[in-house]
Amino acid sequence: MSSPIRLATAAIVVGSLALAPAAAEAHKVASPKSVKSHVRKADRSLKQVKSLVRSGDSPEAAQHVRRVRSQMRSATREANRLKRRARSKRSVKRAAAAQVTVAKEFNRIAEAYAVIVDEANGVVQLAIASTIDNYLVGRQKAIEVLTGLMDQLPEAARPHIARVLALLTTDGKDEVVSITQAIQSPGLPPEVASALTQALEVATAAIGMATEQLQAILPLLPAEARPHVERALGT
């Protein structure tokens, strides 16, 4: 197959992975539990992606890349629904719990994809490279929601959320390192290198934005919670 035809075929397949409607059905009633259900399914498929990439089964790995994305769409949709409906302290706490679940999984997926992208090949490599930035953006949006909810949360719940935000912010450097190493891999297809370069820009910008948000929530935290955030800012 000639190079232009091969690239066009890859673009079509990757486009189908990115634009296909979510296969995961949303729950009728959104709750932290329903969000966790979608995230667990996404995580199972993520483990399959890692295993199949390393065994060289690209077609099956591509199917699981699609399932990861589908389940995370549903998880995000339900978490955002909880946030929009949050009025009482209890409902704000539930909304924050759902956003924590989504943010941690976005972080886990972005880290995993950044590590394995240079081990993949063909269509699945491009699919992984082209979606890393989506998960980085998803994590950042969840961080923004959590920082926005901080002043509405009961004071007792704020230290836990602060620790999560601090962890997610410091974790940002992991993707930067892994993506940089992947870009330097010999023989990397140009379209994959381009997607990774874009992901690197997103990862770097996300660290700056998350750091600003941590600084903004410091005055809202009880004294015992501030050291976690201050350590993250120092890092």
What does this protein look like?
The structure is a single chain. The chain has 235 residues and is mainly α. The chain has one domain. The chain has helices at residues 3-19, 32-55, 58-85, 89-116, 122-149, 158-183, 190-217, 226-234. Helix 6 (158-183) runs parallel beside helix 8 (226-234). Mean pLDDT is 87; it is low at 1-23.
What is the gyration radius calculated from CA atoms?
19 Å
Mean pLDDT: 87
Q: Give the total of domains.
A: 1
- Proportion of beta-strand residues: under 5%
* Number of distinct helices: 8
Biggest pleated-sheet summary: none
| Helix-and-strand structural type | mainly alpha
Helicity, as a percent range = over 70%
The N- and C-terminal alpha carbons lie at a distance of: 49 Å
Count the E strands: 0
Low-confidence segments, given as residue ranges, are 1-23
What is the overall shape? globular
Which sequence of SSEs, written as H and E, runs from N to C? HHHHHHHH
What characteristics describe this protein?
mainly alpha; 8 helices; 0% strand; disordered N terminus
Q: What topology emerges from the helices and strands here?
A:
Blueprint: H1 3-19, H2 32-55, H3 58-85, H4 89-116, H5 122-149, H6 158-183, H7 190-217, H8 226-234
Helix pairs in contact: 1-5, 2-3, 2-4, 3-4, 3-5, 4-5, 4-6, 5-7, 6-7, 6-8
Give a brief description.
This protein has helices at 3-19, 32-55, 58-85, 89-116, 122-149, 158-183, 190-217, 226-234. With 235 residues, the protein is an all-alpha fold.
